[in-house]
Design brief:
The complex is a heterodimer. By secondary structure, chain A is of the alpha+beta class. Chain A folds into three domains: 94 residues; 53 residues; 113 residues, Tick-borne Encephalitis virus Glycoprotein, domain 1, CATH 2.60.98. Chain A contains six helices and eight strands. In chain A, the strands form two sheets. Chain A has a four-stranded antiparallel sheet, with no helix packed on it. In chain A, strands 2-3-4-5 form a four-stranded antiparallel sheet, with no helix packed on it. Chain A is elongated, with a radius of gyration of 26 Å. By secondary structure, chain B is mainly alpha-helical. Chain B has two domains: 118 residues, Four Helix Bundle (Hemerythrin (Met), subunit A) (Up-down Bundle); 129 residues. The chains are: A alpha+beta, B mainly alpha. At the A-B interface, helix 2, strand 7, strand 8 and helix 6 of A face helix 2, helix 3, helix 6 and helix 7 of B.
């Protein structure tokens, strides 16, 4: 049993898992380049339970990839827990070594950040590519409803037939074009606000993100019966994001502080003059 | 392309080639002056690019690699060991500078980013810290290679490994700041703080590589050699990932 615990908490086990993860992500890069890009995109559009229930056919391989990733991540989590408990706590309890204690804290925060990433796949909700025209509504979870009050588009709408990357600031004003939405619950008005590119709107913990505008019917053959531009929104609620956005900078600060604490190599002061910095002479 | 950046780019190349030549011939004062001139020329090329485009020179491959070259030049100037001490650190630095400059020439010239991203602070921070991180990791590689070179002659000097480790951790910190900025960008632009995509997979590979480099067990000379090999290749790995992503 002790041998097993020693192995689970060992750096050798971490190394094997990290190497396996590198192979796993390299495989994902190959998959995205060989026809599975759309399948990964579908994963982005749904929470994982929804995606697993609706995905078929081509996604079998990606399912295998995802479950493999979860298995490796779980093993790495076990390694992290055992390593923290078996090594760091013992060391810090005995010596009260500050860098080691800080390193323990960094590892714990890292584990929580990864948990937050996985949590974001499971909790809240996502509605990708919600297409709305002015005056239209979309029903959300928990009796919420969003309505596009106004789609303010100041440019020539024919530019919307082009991909967004091809648009220049002369033909598409990224600042002036926006969408005004209102949020309702049980048909009672709650709040309203406007959103534009890279300026999402958060109402009642629900984020409304502007993905694009859609051209009016006059610009598209067989398009919807409207003379003004429409919009595509990504509507999401992700309770895990606050955890990650709080802990991630703490992890960075922790590593930076650890670097400052351990910048000088212990027991090497007598040789420090030789390889020190200070510019070329 | 505007003629001014091309002119300064050519001068940058000449200056760094001269600096390497004087390093090889052990004329360190001349090396220092050409190194500084190389930094000044790359800074001038970046200033000309910024003036012409009206935005930070971090979006297209040409300008971002030139920015990395400038940062690496500054690191070699102010962070590398002086004189005949640690010449491998500077030699590695110059070789990486030439790789970066070569990549500037073969990289696609067009700006493939949306124009509305050019003035968003998180997008800029994402790109800038990625370049700083790349420069730091490439610089760190020089210390690890110095450690390996010394190890062949005699018992290797652990201080080189430790200095390499310091710059590598600093590079990792900058990489994480870049990742955090990218998460905010992703949250604002796509409604979630991370996405399954080739960009995410490439970034994760770099992060995992760094984690491996920092988790080599053992305190003996063999472990130190493995650590120095992986540490030395970390900048190369990040650079290769950047090139692959850009060229594919």
């Amino acid at each position: 049993m002790k041998k097993l615990i020693d192995f689970l908490s060992s750096l050798h086990f971490s190394l094997w898992l990290l190497t396996l993860l590198i192979g796993w992500f390299a495989w994902a890069i190959v998959l995205t380049a060989t026809g599975y890009f759309e399948t990964f995109q579908q994963m982005n559009n749904h929470l994982m339970p929804d995606w697993l229930s609706i995905s078929h056919g081509k996604s079998t391989l990606i399912r295998f990839w995802f479950f493999g990733l979860c298995a490796i991540a779980a093993a790495l989590g076990i390694n992290l827990i055992f390593c923290s408990w078996n090594k760091f706590l013992k060391i810090t309890a005995r010596r009260m070594n500050r860098p080691a204690m800080l390193m323990l804290a960094i590892h714990v925060v890292f584990g929580l950040v990864i948990l937050g990433h996985f949590g974001s796949l499971l909790v809240g909700f996502r509605h990708a590519n919600v297409r709305l025209r002015q005056g239209e509504s979309f029903e959300l979870q928990n009796e919420y409803r969003v309505r596009a009050d106004a789609i303010h588009f100041v440019n020539d709408a024919s530019v919307l037939t082009k991909p967004i990357k091809a648009m220049t600031s002369d033909e598409f004003s990224f600042e002036s074009n926006f969408v005004q939405v209102s949020l309702y619950k049980n048909d009672l008005f709650l709040k309203s606000g406007r959103l534009s590119f890279l300026k999402p709107l958060v109402l009642d913990g629900i984020q409304f993100t502007l993905k694009n505008f859609t051209p009016p019917a006059s610009a598209v053959k067989n398009g919807p019966n409207s003379s003004s531009a429409g919009t595509i929104l990504f509507i999401s609620r992700n309770p895990a994001k606050n955890l990650v956005f709080t802990l991630f900078p703490l992890m960075i600060i922790g590593i930076a502080v650890y670097l400052v604490m351990t910048w000088k190599q212990p027991g090497y002061q007598q040789h420090a003059s030789r390889p020190s910095g200070g510019g070329t002479k | 392309m505007n003629i001014q950046p091309v002119f300064f780019f050519s001068l940058t190349t000449v200056c760094f080639v001269s600096a390497l030549f004087f390093l090889q011939t052990q004329r360190y004062s001349a090396e220092k002056y050409f190194l500084w001139a190389g930094c000044a020329c790359s800074a001038s090329a970046l200033a000309a690019l910024t003036h012409a485009s009206g935005r930070m020179p971090v979006f297209a491959d040409f300008e971002s690699m030139l920015l990395t070259t400038f940062m690496l030049g500054v690191l070699i100037s102010f962070g590398s060991p002086p004189g005949d001490s640690g010449t491998e650190v500077r030699r590695c630095g110059y070789i990486f500078v030439f790789i970066l400059l070569s990549f500037c020439l073969i990289s696609p010239q067009s700006h493939d980013q949306n124009e509305y991203l050019y003035h968003n602070v998180w997008v800029i921070l994402f790109h800038v810290f990625r370049r700083i991180s790349l420069a730091l990791m490439l610089f760190a590689s020089g210390f690890f290679f110095q450690h390996r070179k010394n190890g062949r002659k005699t018992v290797s000097d652990p201080a080189w490994n430790h200095l390499g480790r310091n710059y590598l951790i600093l590079g990792a910190v900058c990489f994480l700041i870049s990742e955090y900025s990218g998460m905010i960008w992703c949250q604002q632009g796509w409604g979630d703080f991370w996405h399954w995509s080739s960009v995410f997979f490439h970034s994760t590979l770099v992060l995992l590589y760094l984690m491996i480099a920092f988790h080599i067990p053992g305190r003996n000379e063999n472990a130190a050699q493995i650590r120095s090999l992986l540490g030395g290749l970390s900048g190369v790995f990040f650079l290769a990932m950047t090139m692959i992503r850009s060229l594919l």
